Amino acid sequence: MAAPAPISTSLFLPALPVLPFRRIPPPSADTSAAAPGLLTRGHDSPITIIGPENEESVDVTPNFLPLDIAPEVAAALGANRPVVALESTIISHGLPWPDNLAIAREVEAEVRRGGAVPATIAVLGGRIRIGLDDAALSRLARAPAGSVAKLSRADIAPALACGRDGATTVAATMILARRAGIDVFATGGIGGVHRGAEATFDISADLVELGRTDVTVVAAGAKAILDLPKTLEVLETEGVAVIGWRTGAFPAFWCRESGLEVPIRMDEAAEIAQAHLYRRALGIGGGQLVANPIPEEAALPRETVEAWIAAALAEARNKGIAGKAVTPFLLGRIAELSGGRSLEANRALVRNNARLAAEIAAAICAERQSGIAAMREAP
After folding, report:
1. Which of 22, 234, 340, 373 is the most buried if burial means most Cβ atoms within 10 Å?
2. Are 136 and 378 a contacting pair, CB within 8 Å?
3. Is pLDDT larger for residue 329 or for residue 112?
4. DSSP state of 297
């Protein structure tokens, strides 16, 4: 039987591979990783590159990429309806059970209330999943400690090759969102330059990815546990547009202000959408960081947060905690020190970011629909 026609995730992305889909079971013996009804790319399917004048089917990447896009997500992308990507490390590494599953459901619900389709991204059983059903969310949330890998750029391909479960960081979510044709991604806070990086060189791959991958990321700034001045310096070096949403202050995750300024302020989602499309049309590469302050009623005092961070950092140093284990440890310890206040603030800021991301995604779709973006993104 002939494969269906390609689903065009965007008619205005000449460099973006747009995947044709057909209903087939996953090729591994473990079928639990791919939920029934997922639109799965076949092993023998070509990739269609959407050009400015015609469509040409050319095989440009390996045909065995194990990529499963949920039908609702694929339908929205094909119809130029807004989709918001969501990371999965907040489920497996960021929050304890059952808060992790609750916040995952809440964030998806916020995206839907904003008129967009949520696409939580993860790797399950060695297959990329763009859009998770409730069973998959529960699988990540209930997974025993250490059983789900924390995936950044370097880890995605090995996880696929070894058939592992993996939760995506900001960097990995950006890569896979872009691969699927998703423009906007909502998270809590990005990673950045860790305190003491002048000795440890501990700098999150999130910053480099923001300089490479053209996805607009909505976050409450960078996580407050980081060295925020150095984080902003690296973002500037990487050519990332840091945009304050209706503010001139750079937020610090649980706190509305960090004492630092943002280089750009925008007050309308349409402005952010146009900047996203202009950036792509210019061929600059890299993405935008939309710094969205936590709602005022949920914000925590900076002085109190700094005291918690200092105590947690000292404990991490004493225990020799380093690398990818640092951030989960610090967030968990601060949750204990704050008596759960940081968790409640985390929930509020992630929901807030999801709402704004849905608004921006809708604005990007409106720009494309109007036809203006076709001229702006012409090669």
Report:
1. 373
2. no
3. 112
4. G
CATH number for the domain formed by residue range(s) 183-379:
3.40.1790.10
Which pLDDT tens digit goes with each residue over 330-339? 988 999 999 9
Residues 6 or more apart whose Cβ sits within 8 Å of residue 286: 210, 211, 212, 213, 214, 238, 239, 240, 279
Distance CA 8, CA 55 (A): 10
This model's pTM is above 0.85? no
C-alpha to C-alpha distance for 330 and 322, rounded to whole angstroms = 11
The catalytic site residues sit at: 87, 223
Phi, psi of 191 (to 5 degrees): -75, 175
Is residue 293 predicted with pLDDT exceeding 90? yes
101-107's contacts with Cβ under 8 Å and 24+ in sequence apart are 101/137, 101/138, 101/141, 101/142, 103/346, 103/347, 103/350, 104/137, 104/140, 104/141, 105/134, 105/137, 106/347, 106/350, 106/351, 107/186, 107/350, 107/351, 107/354
Domain extents in the chain: 183-379
Q: What is the pLDDT of residues 234-265, one digit of tens each?
A: 999 999 999 999 999 999 999 999 999 999 99
* Peptide bond between residue 98 and the one before it cis (omega within 30 degrees of 0): yes
Instruction: Give Cα 223 distance to the centre of its chain.
Output: 15
